[in-house]
Amino acid sequence: MDDVVIASAEADAHAAQAVEQHHAELAGALAFKVEVLAALARAGQGLDEDVRRDLVDWCRTELMPHALAEEGTLYRAAAQRTEGRLLVEAMLAEHQVIAGLIDAVEGTADAVTAAVAAGALRAVFDIHLAKENDQILPLLSAAPDVSLAALLSGMHELIGGGEDEAAAAHNCTCHEAEEAGLPELDARTIPHAIRHATIFGALDGVAPGHGLVLVAPHDPLPLLAQIEGRSPGAFTIEYLERGPEAWRLSMVRAAPVGSRV
Fold first, then answer.
1. DSSP conformation letters of 50-101
2. 5-16 pLDDT, tens per residue?
3. What are the CA-CA distances from residue 133 to residues 4, 51, 216, 222, 252 (Å)?
4. 27, 49, 127, 255 - which has most CB atoms within 10 Å?
5. Which helix (H) or strand (E) holds 42?
6. Residue 90: how many CB atoms within 10 A of its CB?
7. Burial of 36 by CB count in 10 Å (0-12 exposed, 13-18 middle, 19+ buried)?
8. CA pair distance 121, 73, nearest whole angstrom
9. Where are the beta strands (DSSP E) in the chain?
10. Do 19 and 75 contact (CB within 8 A), yes or no?
11. Listed residue (121, 247, 250) closest to 188, CA to CA
């Protein structure tokens, strides 16, 4: 997102930025998990319960708590403003759609049906986050009687934190997806302002011994330095293609010494 968010205070601007960055991390994590499921369906390998369960569990422990936290904070404040009331009603309805799509992924025994539902979930969630970033946050940031910083104080579900612990707890055995080829994340389609946060969110979802292929519009040296600073030695990175149209890199999370993946 390239638009400047006008805030009533510097603290509110920082709070809005923190929410947007957390949104990008959530979107990246969801994109990766959906792509793993889709890769299995494309390869005709059937529905892997570990992969499906990893996606559903993440949605129920990360995505939906985030949505509920929004309802009690951002949405409640926005609904008290005339210009935000109808928008909030629509956003609440989208939360119901998102919950229904999670149920659809969980409830089918067919790999293609699960992949289609997961793809729809990702599309709806991306559009939903764009509305929050482009409409809800600017509305509240510009309101002189609303303090985003105070509203979001201590709200892990809305501003993130603890990603390293979440990654360490990830124990998905996505072996079939590995055999079908690493899932790809095309960073060229991600707005520049949230590109790195989205990639971090995807990498946080990678289990030890597994990885993804990053497609970048340029040699991502600054990003690689950030990844190493964020998680020293966590990823083995190999260039698969070096321009001129795209740079493709495999990023594989190191497995613990002595472990079997």
1. HHHHHHHHHIIIIIHHHHHHHHHTHHHHHHTSGGGHHHHHHHHHHHHHHHHH
2. 555 577 888 888
3. 11, 30, 24, 25, 31
4. 27
5. helix 10-42
6. 11
7. buried
8. 23
9. 184-186, 211-216, 235-242, 247-253
10. no
11. 247
pLDDT digits (tens, 9 = 90+) for 16-44: 888 999 999 999 999 999 998 998 888 88
Tell me whether the omega of the peptide bond preceding residue 244 falls within 30 degrees of 0, making it cis: yes
209-to-33, 85, 148, 172, 182 alpha-carbon distances in Å: 16, 47, 40, 11, 11
Chain-centroid distance, C-alpha 186: 14
Tell me which amino acid residue 256 is.
P
- Written as six digits, the tokens of 17 are 């930025």
Q: How far is 211 from 216, CA to CA, in rounded Å?
A: 16
- 111-131 helix and 10-42 helix, angle to the nearest 10 degrees: 160
What type of residue is 11?
A
> Please, how many CA atoms are within 13 Å of residue 17, restricted to the half-sphere of its CB?
13
Q: What is the pLDDT of residues 184-219, one digit of tens each?
A: 889 998 878 788 988 998 898 888 888 999 999 999
Predicted TM-score (pTM) of this structure = 0.77
Neighbour order of strands in the sheet with 211-216: 184-186, 211-216, 247-253, 235-242
pLDDT tens digits, 77-101: 999 999 999 999 999 999 999 999 9
8-state DSSP, 206:
P
What contacts 67, CB < 8 A, 6 or more positions away?
A: 95, 98
Bridge partners (DSSP) listed for residue 242 = 247
Angle between helices 221-230 and 192-204 (to 10 degrees): 40
